[in-house]
Every structure is written in structure tokens, then in C-alpha cells.
Amino acid sequence: MGVISILITALTLFYFDLANGPLICFILELIFISAFVSLRIILRHKKFVFRMIPTLAFIVSTAILVPLTKPTTERWKAVNYSNPVKTEILTLENGKVQGVYNKDKTVEVYAGIPYAKPPIGDLRWREPQDVENWEGVRDCSYFAPKSMQPGSNPITSTLVDIYAERGWHPDYNMHSNQNMSEDSLYLNIWRPNTTETDLPILVFIHGGSLTTGSSAYSDYNGEEMAKKGVIMITITYRLSVFGYFAHVGLQNESPNHTTGNYGLLDQIKALDWVNKNAEYFGGDKDNITIAGESAGSSSVSALCASPLAHGLFKRAIGESSSLVVKKAPHTYRTMEDALKTGNDIMKEFKCSSIDELRKIPASKLVNTKYGNSGMTLDGYALTKDPYDVYKDGENNEEVLLNGYNVKEGDAFAVPQYLLSPTNKSNIRKRLIDNFDEQTADELCEYYKDEIKKDAFSVFNEVFSIYWFINPHHSWSNMAVNNGTPVYRYQFTKENGFHGTYHAGEMIYAYGNVKNCKYDYRYNDDDLKLSETMLSYWSNFAKNGDPNGEGLPTWSLYTGNGDGVIELGKNVGKIGDRYLGAYPIFERYIEKLIEN
Hints:
Number of strands: 20
Radius of gyration: 25 Å
Strand order of the largest sheet: 4-5-10-12-11-13-14-17-18-19-20
Largest sheet: 11 strands, mixed
CATH superfamily of the largest domain: Alpha/Beta hydrolase fold, catalytic domain
Oligomer: single chain
CATH topology of the largest domain: Rossmann fold
């Protein structure tokens, strides 16, 4: 192995692995590299067997070192301070729980409360069942495991982080991974430490393409929302092959003849639990708002369209995804496609029956090569496509707040072409590959001046509009057309981290900018915007209107792009600069439907 190859390998380890582990490991690897290079130079004229000694020594030492940089997997604590104080015992419908206070004792946190039976064994791929009563007092000072999900590639993740941060900041601290289990149907409650009752409730559904994610991430920690007088709840639901697998055999055994929407049914079950238990934890079951981001927002739009969710909530917040479009670009698929994927998975694991597939260990099944990242029209949880539900004026929410970030598509388009960035020479070909020739030509004509200046950004914007912005435009207009009041936003705040990329708004909306431990990411402008957005979101959860004393006026959206508010360095009403692009994508969608 040549010196150059070793150095390349070492640099890869530095920047994609060791620089995110303990500092001592990084230092040791530097020492190993220095020793290797020095010995290679000293032994360069010796026999081959001697020249190989430093190479072999480096390989062995690195092989020993790399596992030491891997984070541990453990239960995550509900609060992040030493020796947390226990709350009083709280009695719920199914038993007693005890949580912990936040550091200043203004908020009570109850983590890992079960809302359904564990969906394991014979209950895998069945509708969620009522949770059973438990004896004694349940310790709710730790989050429950996240749902089973495939692992991420650390090198790819770091590359995306490097792009997202506009200048990478290595982190030489070990951060544990959250434990994972098929037994994951739990929720977390943050409530104000008060004797008040009938408090508004906000239920948040995490994103992750319906394949990854957790209810315990710090960006949407509910402590700051609770300080505003709103009970915040985050829920875990089945993901990937466990949440969205579909098969005829499952349809036949289901009393509701359903398959493919187990994760969505979990969300509905969680909402049912919240309604039944609201009075026990001081909440108002008649004042529930659902919220979600990315696939969580797609789920919110599905809940707004589901007859099973009717009456379980009052208002909806959707951030960065929607199914209320003639043909959803992601997180939704036809039953035909879902069943085909299900049959492919049966063949992959060499199973001839559902009973056989249920016996496959979750740790093995989770690594299926087939994606399960879409809800479907199952005739039970969803009896109509969400677009048709809105067209017929049958949506569930009384008021809708929804919006998007201006660079949603970057996080998806950039990794796809990481080693071959889009430029003015290849953009048309790439647009053809992702859409069709006519649409590509229309987009190239529409963006002709911008392509000359920055084809890379144009290509990313096209993905942002098609995947995220146009679906929100459609959702807003469809809701307005059937009389639902709508508040629509566009998030534009850049910062030292995700900025206006996908998911960049969450840490602002739920008030957690002030709690970020990385000082380089955010400044006073970010803190100010976060307080504004938290006030908007909490006001909306309280009474269906984000406006309040001291806040810039957020006017109702009236349709066709009129009434969008900018949430950025400036906060106020703006025009919709994508109005000219929407018709191009609508024509493309019509062709997809026809074909």
C-alpha cells in the first residue's frame, strides 16, 4: 500500500470519523500517522518485508482505534441536568407515572408513556391495540426507544453536515445514540408546573421520510412550549417496513381490511389516547393542535384527511411537506406499488406467509433493501386521496398554519450529485432525468437568466418547489377554497448551521435556539426570531390565531400566493415569488396522472 493511499485513508478517518469522536483518539491517530510516515522514510531502502512493518502496524492500530470512536447506544434522559428532581405521581387512565422537573422546576416532563400495546410478535403489522393497565408507578424519567429504523452512513452524514454548516466544526465529544426497539409506541409530555387545568395541547409528529427519526430530538424539545402555557406532546410511531409494509395477506386478516398504514394508525391511536387522558394531565381535549415536520407534516395532512382522526384534534400545523396535491411527490404511493414492494420483501426474506415474516428478527428485517416510505389509500385510515378530501371540503382541521423553507431541496439534491455538481452545461440533462424533456425545456426557459449566473442554485430550487413548496401552495389554496382559515409562512433565516434547508425552522418554532450548545450556529437575531416563532406557534395552539401583543401582524392567507408571511431576518408579509413556476409543475403532474 502506497504512502499516498495511507494518507488519503487517514484523512478520511480524521474528517469523517475521528473528528467526531473523543479528542484523545484524534491525537493518537495523528501520532500513528506521523510514526508511519517517519518509519516509511527510514525504511524506504530496506527489503519489502521490513517496509511493510509500519504499514501493517498502522492498519492494526487504526483498526483498534476506530471502534473506540463509535458512540454508545443508551436510553436518553428526559432532562439534561444532574440528579433531576422527581415530579409528584400522576394518575392516568391506565396507571400511575412519575416524571422529572426541568432545571428551574417550571415544567414537568413525563417521557416514555405507552399509548398502545407493544406491536411485537403476533401484533407486528396489526392495527395498534389499547394499552394495558400497569401496576405500581411507572418511571418516566427516560425517553422510550426510537422505532426500528435503518442506520445512517456516518461518512455521508458528515458530508451533508459539512455542506449544511458552510464550514465544518469538528465535535470531539462523544454523543450517544438513542436505543432502538420494535416496542416503541410511546409518547412524551411536557406540561407547565401549574395547578391550572384545561390547558391547550400541541401534539408533534417527527419527520424522517417515514423511515427514520425520534420523538426525543432536542430541536423540538417541548420545554419552551410548556413555558408558554401549552402542553406539548411528541409521539413515536412505527417506521419503514414495520410501519408501512403492505400485503394482501395482512388485508385478509385485518378486521378492517387494511394494510400499509400502520404508522399512520399509530398516530391516530396516540391522538385517541391524548383525548382520553387529557383531563388527567390538565389538558383540554377540545383544544388539541397537531403539528409535524417533513414526513411528520405529510402525516399531519393525512390526519386532516382521515375519517378516523375526525374530532380528535382542532387545528393543524404543517412544516415542509404535504400530501394535499394532485400527485404527492413523496411519502405517498398507490396501493399497487405498496403491495408490489411487500411481495418483493417476502421474496427477499424467502417467506411464503405473513406468519413466517413475523418470525424474522426485527434487527434483520429493518435492513430490507426495499424502501417503505409512503402512506397509501387503504380504504380505512384513508378512504380518499387527501387532495380529493380537500376538494370535497371534508378536511378535519378548523384552522391551518403551514409553510416551507426556501432551500428545502438542497439537502436532497446536493448529496445526489455530490461529486458532480450541477452547472449550466448539465442542468438540462438532469432536469430531463428527473422530470421529462418538455418540463425541462419549460424550466430552462423560465430560469434562463438565473441559470447563466448560478445553475447549481436553480436546480436545487426546482427540487424545493416540486417536492415541498408547490405542495404547500396547493394545500393552502385547497383549504382556503373550502373555507378553512389559513396562515402560510416562508422561512428565510440563514445562520451558521442548517439555515433555510429542510428542517432548519424547527429549532426556532419550538423555542430551542436558546438551548443550542453550539454558539457558532446562532446569534441574537436568531434568538429574536425564535422567540417570535415560538409565540406564533403557541398562540395558534391556544386559540387558532398566531397573532399576539408585540408581534408583527400575520394576516390570513387569501389564496393564489396572497398573504404569505416571511419568517427571517425580517418578519412581515411578502409576495410569493414562485407563482410563475407552479404552472410548470402542475402541467407535469397532470401528465403523470394521465400516464
